Amino acid sequence: MTQAPTQVQTLLDLIAREARQSGVFGEVVVSPARVECAAKDAAEPAFYRIDVAGSDALVSLVTANRWLSESIETDLLHHGDSMEELVEEELVELGISGVTPTIQHYRSDDKLFTFKSSVPDGVNAGAKTITTWLLAYEAAFRNLGDMSGGE
Fold it and tell me: Which CA distances in Å does 128 have to 13, 15, 31, 41, 87?
């Protein structure tokens, strides 16, 4: 089911409000189909996003900086954890259990190194659940690589 533009905007405004109130992000910006939250302490610019496309809601971390992306990958390799496991653990901590996220990792057409997941039930999951996914992504990535400023 496709959401009307005003419903999408209301959803995104609610998510942005909760993101700001969480205190874990830098600047939070809302556009017609996206909430973009700056990573607060990353060594290089990085952004957590919620994108709405039709009835889909997508959560992602993006950076144009290859070095920052590689620092995350290196930490995952050295610690032996998968990104899916880390996000799943954070979701459980935040009250969502029984969901194993699928995380795509790639370089997008606009040259952004991207980690991305679909939120189950998309926009129908509601602002609270979608915000929880955003917060789980932030918590999972916060201590990887140079997302907390590096050395």
Answer: 12, 7, 19, 24, 17
Q: Are 20 and 36 in contact (CB under 8 A)?
A: no
CA distance 62 to 60: 6
pLDDT, averaged per 10 consecutive residues of the chain (151 residues), comes to 74 98 97 96 95 96 95 90 94 95 94 96 96 98 84 44
- Rg, C-alpha atoms of the chain: 15
Q: Which two tokens stand for residue 124?
A: 């129908």
User: pTM score, two decimals?
Assistant: 0.93
Strand ranges for 33-79 from DSSP E: 34-39, 47-53, 56-63
Q: Which domain holds residue 35?
A: 5-141
CATH of the domain at 75: 3.90.1150
